[in-house]
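Annotated sample (chain length 126).
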Amino acid sequence: MLHALEIHHVSLVVKDIKKAKAFYSNKLQLPELDRPPFTFKGAWYAIGTQQLHLIEASSGAVLHQKSNQINSRNEHVAFRVNSYKETIDFLEQQGVPFIEKKNSTSGFQQIFCTDPDGNTLEFMTD
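Output written by the structure step:
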């Protein structure tokens, strides 16, 4: 039997690490972590005790189709946040488009947005 303890990190593939870092570092203001000297470009961020790893796509990588639609049913990464309202206010201040599911069937209050490459992000509170 596998005894998994927690999720250590989630990796997302991005087309342009500079654009991705502008979003995650500047717009979302996530704390960037030191990263080993890999032979490929990327960035690591702290999310509580877990991590988010960005990997710049190789030329043959399959990426999401970029869309102006935010789809909460796409594969996504969910971040627990302290305050629904503060998160909404913050995303508005940063000019990040999002959709709200304040009374979601899941029982969580949810906010969804996408990064510059179409990766879907969820911010949720109990």
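Annotation: The two ends are 30 Å apart (CA to CA).
Annotation: Residues 17-27 form the longest helix (11 residues).
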